[in-house]
């Protein structure tokens, strides 16, 4: 919704990353799109041991989307354009207003996170309904004598009745072939979501009645809620030194900026994991999808690594840290040689051998 603190949050994310220039970066791709490094303490731990020339974190792209209003699906406001923006993302961070402030304009009357959330859901569902119905009428024509198309049609019909009940596609938890049947539609309500309850300053640690209501609803959907105050986050990022920042957020009883929690949660929401390469040149974090095997994981470094993959040398993160590095890990038999079928674990420290 408009005026809930989305841009404030986006600016906080971008400022904080810019400020931590030594380690974490931010780069603006477009005014409302930014690439943010993912804070990961494991990078620092690995670097203490390896003492590399540089440290390269992995990054996540954030997009600041203008607020939707009731009727957006019908093109109300700048509705369609923004809905198209949402279509392109992999996950949604839904910022919900849980603070009272008469000075911040609000058209929908008293603060009500549940109805706000439902208004947005409804707009997105209406848009999804359009996509689903279009594909149903296309598929019906060819499904009569084609079992594959018939199966796709079944999934579409299931999606339609889900939306008709006012539910989000993600509640169907589609997997495998079912998921593939609608993948081309980029359904908005099928995207993973997490909620930011933007609460007033006094409620940063405790939450308030609004964030509690939101949390109760989100738990029912298996979604996560992050309670934070976006204004404070933005103010923290404007402070120059780390000491000032720490003093500022610890005054509120926080042990770290809410942003770090948010970035990490967003990363988990996307079902991404990190593996590391740890050489003297650089210690680096690489992002892959959970479940990827070693050759595919290697491809994010270079496509040749996947094509010419021979094997991977793998040390678990904990072993690497406890034993104090690669040499000791090798001596203690904790360096494993893994082949093409190896499913990479979060935190694996990897070295690939490949043919060119
Ligand atoms: N009181 C209060 N105001 C906030 C908070 N977060 C954002 N605002 C204010 O709400 C207004 C709209 O914020 P903005 O981030 O532009 O909202 P957007 O429309 O969702 O992008 C600005 O004046 C912000 O300073 C908050 O946590 N508390
Ligand atoms: Mg905005």
Quick overview of this protein structure:
Helices cover 44% and strands 19% of the residues. By secondary structure, the protein is of the alpha/beta class. It has a domain at 291-354: Beta-grasp domain (Ubiquitin-like (UB roll)), CATH 3.10.20.
Q: If you had to describe this structure to a student in words, what would you say it looks like?
A:
The protein has 356 residues and is an alpha/beta fold. It has a domain at 291-354: Ubiquitin-like (UB roll) (Roll), CATH 3.10.20.30. Helices cover 44% and strands 19% of the residues. The protein contains 14 helices and 12 strands. It has helices spanning 6-19, 41-50, 79-87, 113-143, 147-164, 176-183, 209-221, 230-238, 242-251, 258-269, 294-299, 303-307, 317-323, 326-331; strands at residues 26-30, 33-37, 54-56, 59-63, 92-98, 193-199, 224-228, 272-278, 282-289, 309-315, 336-338, 349-354. It has a 3-stranded antiparallel beta sheet with strand order 1-2-4, covered by helices on one side. The mean pLDDT is 90.
């Amino acid at each position: 919704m408009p005026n809930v603190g989305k841009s404030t949050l986006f600016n906080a994310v971008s400022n904080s990353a810019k400020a931590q220039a030594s380690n974490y970066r931010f780069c603006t791709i477009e005014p409302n799109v930014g690439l943010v490094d993912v804070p990961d303490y494991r990078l620092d731990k690995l670097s203490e041991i390896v003492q590399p020339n540089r440290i390269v974190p992995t990054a996540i792209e954030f997009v600041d989307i203008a607020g939707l209003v009731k009727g957006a699906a019908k093109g109300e406001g700048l509705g369609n354009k923004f809905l198209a923006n949402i279509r392109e993302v992999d996950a949604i961070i839904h910022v919900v207003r849980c603070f009272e402030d008469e000075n911040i304009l609000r058209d929908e009357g008293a603060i009500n996170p549940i109805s706000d959330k439902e208004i947005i859901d409804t707009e997105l569902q209406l848009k999804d309904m359009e996509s689903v119905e279009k594909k149903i009428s296309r598929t019906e024509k060819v499904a009569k004598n084609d079992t594959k198309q018939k199966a796709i049609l079944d999934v579409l019909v299931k999606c339609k009745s889900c939306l008709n009940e006012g539910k989000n596609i993600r509640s169907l938890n589609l997997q495998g072939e079912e998921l593939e049947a609608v993948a081309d539609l980029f359904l908005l309500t099928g995207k993973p979501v997490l909620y930011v309850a933007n609460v007033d300053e006094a409620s940063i640690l405790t939450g308030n009645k609004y964030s509690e209501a939101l949390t109760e609803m989100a738990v029912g959907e298996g979604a996560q809620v992050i309670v934070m105050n976006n204004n404070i986050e933005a103010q923290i990022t404007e402070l120059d030194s780390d000491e000032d920042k720490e003093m500022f957020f610890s005054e509120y009883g926080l042990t770290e900026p809410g942003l770090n929690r948010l970035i990490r949660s967003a990363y988990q929401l996307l079902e991404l994991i990190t593996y590391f390469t740890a050489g003297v040149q650089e210690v680096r974090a690489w992002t892959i999808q959970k479940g990827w095997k070693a050759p595919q994981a290697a491809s994010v470094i270079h496509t040749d690594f996947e094509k010419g993959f021979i094997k991977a040398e793998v040390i678990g993160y904990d072993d690497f840290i406890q034993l104090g590095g690669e040499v000791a890990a090798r001596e203690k038999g904790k360096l494993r040689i893994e082949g093409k079928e190896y499913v990479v674990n979060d935190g694996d420290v990897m070295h690939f051998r490949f043919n060119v």
